[in-house]
């Protein structure tokens, strides 16, 4: 709300947004494809557990990336976080619903329960989006639309 309104001819997605979006998309695609094709052997699990790992990792990647998306250019993704109760509430509800889907709604969600190590792996993979976002925000972009 600090910036003036954009004109009708301005692109909806700025170059800065594209930079951030493409970096996270490439990371998530690489991770999720690796899990899809090598997840069973990496984790030593069944196909159903591997599919649950992929689903869980995908959702958690979105949750972690929401912090990056709060600030398009600033690297301090936690600044002012305590002031945004709605954001924190949405993050909390999303995480609670994800745990319920994976751990308790197995038949409904077609998931398998994950052990602590598998949850830790999903969280670790998803949390990697924070340092990736930090590095990517160091890459300068042109003001001119692509």
UniProtKB/TrEMBL annotation:
Residues 1-138 form the Cation-transporting P-type ATPase C-terminal domain. SUPFAM superfamilies: Calcium ATPase, transmembrane domain M. InterPro entries: ATPase_P-typ_cation-transptr_C, ATPase_P-typ_TM_dom_sf. The keyword Magnesium applies. The chain crosses the membrane at residues 86-104, 116-136. One of its GO terms (molecular function) is metal ion binding. PANTHER family: CALCIUM-TRANSPORTING ATPASE 13, PLASMA MEMBRANE-TYPE-RELATED (PTHR24093:SF434), CATION TRANSPORTING ATPASE (PTHR24093). This is Cation-transporting P-type ATPase C-terminal domain-containing protein.
């Amino acid at each position: 709300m600090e910036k003036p309104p954009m004109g009708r001819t301005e692109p909806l997605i700025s170059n800065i947004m594209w930079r951030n979006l493409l970096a996270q998309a490439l990371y998530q695609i690489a991770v999720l494809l690796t899990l899809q094709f090598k997840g069973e052997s990496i984790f030593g699990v069944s196909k159903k557990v591997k599919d649950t790992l992929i689903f869980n990792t995908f959702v958690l990647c979105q949750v972690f990336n929401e912090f990056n998306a709060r600030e398009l250019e600033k690297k301090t993704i936690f600044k002012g976080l305590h002031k945004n109760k709605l954001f924190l509430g949405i993050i909390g509800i999303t995480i609670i619903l994800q745990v319920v889907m994976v751990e308790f709604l197995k038949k409904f969600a077609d998931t398998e329960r994950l052990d602590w190590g598998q949850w830790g792996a999903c969280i670790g993979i998803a949390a990697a989006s924070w340092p990736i976002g930090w590095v990517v925000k160091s890459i300068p972009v042109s003001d001119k639309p692509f």
